[in-house]
Amino acid sequence: MLGWSITVEEGSPKAVDALPSATFPDRLLASWEVNVYGLRWIKELEKAGKAVFDTEGSNGGYPYRYSAPACHVISFIANLTEQQDMNAWVKIGSLHKDRIARCSPRTILTVTAFDLD
Q: Nearest to residue 66, comparing CAs of 3, 1, 6?
């Protein structure tokens, strides 16, 4: 595995699943690709009880999906920066700072991670 492709969108996993896929671009807050260690931040939130692994929406655990209140996620995604270092690379696909700024701290977000082969 080379790393992860991660998206963060507004709405709980159940709510996101019920919406038409055409609305995805409007719900997207951020997307990026990152090295194999790129899920540490969300796993740390899960350990601290601030994020929940979505066992219902993941097909046998794939993709990895988490839900968390925006207050625990926004600071991380708002501070994403591209990195070219071979051991800590991050490639930002989209970062909608206007949507991130409007997001209520109580809004539930879905974090989805697909592995990059």
A: 6
- In tens, the pLDDT along 43-71 reads 999 999 999 999 876 666 679 999 999 99
What pLDDT, on a 0 to 100 scale, did the predictor assign at position 60? 62
Strand, helix or coil for residue 85: coil
Q: Is there a contact between 39 and 96 (Cβ–Cβ < 8 Å)?
A: no
Counting Cα atoms < 13 Å in the Cβ hemisphere of 46 gives 14
Which secondary-structure segment (H or E) carries 75? helix 70-78
The CA distances from residue 106 to 4, 11, 90, 102, in Å, are 26, 11, 27, 12
Query: Which amino acid makes up residue 105?
Result: P
**pTM of the shown model:** 0.92
Q: What percent of the chain has pLDDT over 90?
A: 70
Residue ranges per structural domain of the chain: 3-116
27 touches 94 (CB < 8 A): no
